[in-house]
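BUG: 3D viewer hangs when loading the predicted structure for this chain

Environment: internal workstation, default settings.
Expected: structure renders.
Actual: progress bar stalls at 90%.

Input used:
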Amino acid sequence: MIFRNVIQIERARQAPPTAAHLAYRPAHARETAIAVGLFGLLPFVAMLLLVLGTTHGNFTYTLDDPYIHLALARNLWHGHYGINASELSAPSSSILWPFLLAPFATLGAAFEYVPLAINAVCLFATVAVIHRMFAGMPATPRYTITALLTLSLNLVGLVFTGMEHSLQVLLTAVAILPVLPVLRKRFEATATLPFHVIAAITLLPLVRYEGLAISVPVLAFLFVRGYRREAIVSMSIIGVVMVGFSLFLYANGLGLLPSSVMAKTGLGQTAALLANLRSNLVIYGFLAIPLAWVLRVLWRTDRARFGVVLAASVLYFLFGRNGWFGRYEVFYLLFVVAMSARLALRVGGKLLPAMLLLPLALSMLVKPTLQTPFAAANVASQQAQTARLARMLNAPVAVNDLGLVALRSGQYTLDLWGLGSADALRHRVAHDPASNWMPALMAAHHVRYAFVYSAWFPDRPASWIKVGELVLNQKRVTADDSVVSLYATDPAAAETLRNMLVDFGAQREWEAYSVKVE
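Structure tokens produced before the viewer hung:
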């Protein structure tokens, strides 16, 4: 276990770098195993069964996004960085995640289950880390706190997004260990920084860029505490990988950051930055109360830790995001809750009553957990069916939801929203009317069909012929619209699509979706 005999790696404020370190009281391995089984394995299995039930046995993630990473990873295994083999693109919000998936691309149909397996392991490890964070408490309240954190932070729901956030949260849990206030004031003579801690700090921003909000302040803390070599090496690796990746993208005409980051954040735009800050304050402004208390105590007792909390919070509120089915903010909330809880224990506060209120305070994250089976049903009934349509059509297609169509259609997929197409992103960010650039871009790639949410493109080309609709006949959870409009660019293509839709409707698999033919 990663926490067996792990030493709290803080040096005393007045001590030289070789001084003793505060330590956690080791938790019994059996207790940790029980926590993992109760709050990791059992919820995971129960949720998996529920998802299989709502998707009629066709396991599907709760978002279309993980299939983007899978499509990219499949091409990476063949030496190409992009969604389509004929062009480069940077649709992934993570530097490392597609590379982690790529070696499994040889598994065939089982490849789609790889993110689920990785995320499940990350869930179990995160539960173990959280349980060990509160070692020294009696067993019952420690189990209770572990359960409350698992529920309140949407840790089980994150697994079924199929995204890299479960790994991000695990790395965050390990990376913040050096700055967590400890319960016992016992010293042990050691100057060893566990490798897995520095590895987690280094990998965190490479898994998701916003991990910089944790890694940079923690590395500064370690540098001040005397771990200068480790901090410099870690920061150097982060810098080299991130700069090198940006230079690779720039050299290939893709900008300095992945398309997904640029499309969703509007980096470099003051208005977008202020809008993001306002959104974070509206949703999580209540964190000012525990943060103010934490900062007040640390200002008086430990200025280095004060700097970590302040810097991480400022960076998150300015550049971090919230929402998107309860996944963007989880890493930061884990940091805040863990810091607040450990500090409360250190000063003798009663932690459990406050923690019992956590699911209510973070109800915006509890909701996605409860909605996970229905969100998976949305994707199975909409994006997966769109992918079936594209595969039956057996022709290049333009879309605004890229993942499943790109992974399963076997054809060129033009992403009109821009995650998988640098040209489309440039036009969209520049606010060019879609009717001006879509026809030329589609013609350049021999695309005669478009499956899109009409509301996303109100100025779509007048030459498009609407042939039908794919309608979602269930409550929307993660689907942005209940209707995918199906277009062709010329009469001959329209007739082909119309005939195919008739066949598709006759093969409908369940009642959660339907096809309307114009």
